[in-house]
Structure formats: structure tokens, C-alpha cells
Amino acid sequence: MKILITESIAEEFVTSLRDQGFEVEEYLGHTQEEIEGHIKGCDALIVRSATKVNEALLSNADCLKVVGRAGTGIDNIDVPACTEHGVIALNTPTANNMAAGELAVAHAFAVFRNLCDANNGVHSGDFRRGNWIGVELEGKTAGVIGLGRIGSIVSRKLKGIGMNVVAYDPYVPSEKFEKLGVTRCETLDDLLKVVDLITMHTPKTKETYNMIAKEQIYKCKRGVRIVNAARGGLVNEQDLADALAEGQVAGAAIDVFDVEPSYNKKPGEQEFDNVLIHAPHCYITPHLGASTVEATYNVGSQVADLVARALNGEMVAALNMPAIEGDINAIRPYCNLAEKMGKMYYQTEKSPVKKIEVNYAGGIASQSMEIVTMSLLVGLLKGMGVDGVSYVNIKECVEEYGITISETYDQKVKKYNNLVTVTFHNDDGKDLVLAGTVFEPDTEVLVSFYGYEMNCTLTDTVLAIKNDDVPGVIGKIATTLGRHNINISSLHWARKDKKDKSSAQAFVSVEQPVTEKILKELASCEGVRLVSMIDFS
Ligand code: NAD
Ligand code: MLT
Questions:
Q1: Which residues carry out catalysis?
Q2: For the whole prediction, is pTM greater than 0.85?
Q3: Domains in the chain, start-ordered, CATH in brackets?
Q4: Predicted confidence band of residue 495 (pLDDT cuts 50, 70, 90)
Q5: Beta bridge partners of 64
Q6: How many C-beta atoms lie closer than 10 Å to residue 520's C-beta?
């Protein structure tokens, strides 16, 4: 499978992806049009903030399954369009928080103490320090806009240096403000009235774009300072430049522009310009928020790991999937179990499924298992040979087949700590039930196969063999497999009713797929009624 990387990540993770057998092409420094023309044949795309993952790019892709955003902000990723194209979109939202938070704090110091102006002065021979009298941060009021991951880090650090911190974030519960010791502002205006420093930490959305413009700037005290290390355009660039020139804003520090330059061009080649570059007391860094050794490592490591897992069909937390409650590592084995249960249906039955009921019982029933149900459906549709199905478009795909789904939850369970029971109602009017559990930490076990009780660990290939309940059948099955050098890793035998001699069921886990010819040989053994090979790989 091919992974295209259009913006650099740490080289060791490119190597690690190659070592895992992926073909990796680093296609760096290219224009958006060139990338759009180069996306065919790629199974995954890794980007930072410059590549636009939009409809144009997605509709040029012919086998794209995953987009990995090496970083936090997703304003360059059209997530709904990814969903429509069945592409998993993921990012690394925790990998560079500290780096970005620290940069915002560094910027706050720089604007309070005129560090950049003083530095520039000295480099041009001007040592008149009287020109660069700053103000102290201690005792001043910082207004944090957006109290998410980075806003929280910045709040803690600014409090640590003795600032009063107030914040505006209508989406965050009061408990978080209380925990951080930050005063909640009910409205943006409440914040603007009291602050000496504004620091921006929201995503760039329709709602946040230009949220600090002339009107808001002039609601602040004269001499307010502004830091934006979140996204360009949250602060209106022209209005900020004017307010700096006029003195309403005493200093600003900007890490991000509304329209970003290319960060690869050499000085002579750079044509980018922006009004803030010419504004007084405006310190600008070239989108350095995530540029630390630690963040570069974390982002590269996380994006490479997530993309590889997603390409290998593993469930990963993605932007276009339901949020997973609790620990993803604890839920993952249930997703694997459910996907296998889904894959079993069409490998053992022919009649189309009309309705599926999933029951979650035991400890797992205390949280939403929607993602596990989605795994079941992914398995079912993969078993039907449906192409391009993934977690992100599974609901739409299932709807097309007219299959209805229901989930029930039951805190009580008799035999196991947790149990997943799936009932497939099919066109033949049959209700076929599979049940499974996970033995800690991650062994998937089938405990009921269409009414036959068993205890079968699900390996990659299992033979489900319906046979007569008479002596000698298992011997014939084992001999046939042995003659073809096929090793049996486990064998389970079950019957529903002692008196019914035609209703035994064997579950034989084998260490390699079995050819059609061998399946036919097995089917012709005396006492064997039906042989199905279930391939979970
Ligand atoms: P986050 O999702 O954890 O937090 C964002 C917060 O903004 C949320 O709490 C949300 O409720 C709040 N918010 C949304 N709309 C709002 C509104 N209208 N008014 C007030 N608050 C609002 O995100 P994060 O990880 O903290 O990242 C914050 C920003 O920093 C993002 O824009 C991200 O892209 C950017 N970032 C920049 C760099 C950099 O290199 N400069 C690095 C990492 C992240
Ligand atoms: C981010 O959103 O992660 C940062 O802006 C850094 C980046 O884009 O690389």
C-alpha cells in the first residue's frame, strides 16, 4: 500500500513506515495542483497545514483510505468531504499542545518586554535601552479565548507567573474553569473589558474568523497586547495593524497568518507579504507553534502509527467517527470481535440480512458501544465483498442495503463479564445468533455459533463444519487436513441436542487458508454435512 507524504514528518517515522512494508513517497514542496494530480494510486496521505484536503483532491484519488494530519488544526481538511469519499481523517491533537502553549507564553513575554524590537535595535547598532521599557506580566490580566487543550496549558502557565487569568469559551463547562482557577467570562465583551493581554486558542471556524476585529479591539483598555499562535484570521489582520499603528494595541505577537506563506522558500524566492509584517511592535514567527524537537517527534510518531493502523484495518480514533467513550485500547478487542462476527455471516449463510440486533451485556454496557456496532457492520459488508467500506461511511453503506440496526444494553450477564450477542434476521425468516466475548486483555472468543455453545478463540481461518453426531467424524476431518499438511490450532465440538444425531457443529481453527479442493474433500467425508471456511484476515 502506498503512502504519500506532502509535508515533512520526522525521517525516522518515514523509515518506520517503509520497514512495515508500506511504499512511501515524500512529495515535498509541491503546489496544491501538483498534489491533486499526484494522488492517484495512493492509499494514504500525510499532510501538515499547507496541503488542502478538499473535494478536488479527494475526487482525483482512486484508492485513498486515510488522511493523516500531522498536527492539531484541521481547517485544511474537509472532514465531511472525506466522509463522503469513505476516507478516514485523523489528526494528532495532543502531540504538540505543550509546544504551542509554550510559544504563546513566550510571545506574551516578548510583547510585554519588547524583546523583538530591542533585539532588532541592538542588531542595527541601537543600544538605547530607554526606548524599550516594558511592563511586567505579574498582576496583569490575561484573557484566554478558547479554553481547550492549549488554552488550558497557557492558562496554567500564565497563572504560574502571577497573572490573573480570565477566559471565554462558551462550550466548556464551569467545572473546568474552576479546576484551572480561571474566571469565566460569559461573553467575549466581558473578557475584552478587563484584559491587558488577549491570547487566542480557538480553531478557525465561521464563528471564530475575525472574532477580534476593530470593534472588539477598541472595547479593550488602551495598550492591550495580543498574541495569536492559534490560527491566522482569528484576529482581523488589517484592523490589528491599524490599531498597532494608532497605539490602541501596544504590541502583538503572531505565529499564524490568514493566508500562509510557503515555509520552504529561501529568502530571495519568497514573495509573501502581509500588512502585519509592516506594523509597529508586531512580532512574527513563521508558524513555529509546533516546532520543537519534542513535538516534531510526537507528531511524526503519532501520525505514522495511526495511519499504519488504519491502513491495516484497525480501528483508530478519527475525526469522522463517533467519539469513543473510555479507553480506546479496552474497546479495540471488542471491535475486532464484532468485525469478525460480521464477517462470519456471509461466509456461513446465503440469505440476505434484513435486520440486526446487537445486545451488549455486562461491564461494557455502561458506555456507548456504537463504534463496536460499526465494526460489526464493517465486517458484514466486507464479507459481502463491498468495496471502499470503512468506519466513516459504514452507516450510509448499510442503509443502501436496507439493513436496519438496533442496539440494546444490559448491565447483567450470567456467565461472562461481558457479552456481545448479535441476532441476524434474514430473508428466509431465520433469526441467527452469534455471541462472543473477550478474555482479558485481547483474546476474542466465540461462545455461541447459531445456537451451538462453544468456547472458540477466533484465529485468522476457521472451518465451520456441520456434521452428524456420530463417532469417527472428527478423525476423518483431522486426517484429511493432516494429509494436506494443514495444522489444526484448536478444535471445538458442539451439539444442540443429544438426541438429534444430525446436528453437531465443529469449529476447527487452522494455521493457513484451505483450498477449494481440500474443502470439497472435507465435504465428501462420511458424516460431514456442510463445510464453510471463515476467513477473518
Ligand atoms: P481544542 O479543540 O482543544 O480547543 C479549542 C477550544 O476553542 C475549545 O475548547 C472550544 O470550545 C473553543 N472554541 C470554539 N469556538 C469558540 C468560540 N467561538 N469562542 C470561544 N471559544 C471557542 O484545540 P487546541 O488543541 O487547544 O488548539 C487550539 C488552536 O491552536 C487551534 O486553532 C489549533 O489549530 C492551533 N494550533 C496551533 C499551533 C501552531 O503551530 N501555532 C499548534 C497547535 C495548535
Ligand atoms: C497544528 O495545528 O498542529 C499546528 O498549526 C502546527 C502545524 O500545522 O504543523
A1: 231, 260, 287
A2: no
A3: 2-95+294-311 (3.40.50.720), 97-284 (3.40.50.720)
A4: confident
A5: none
A6: 10
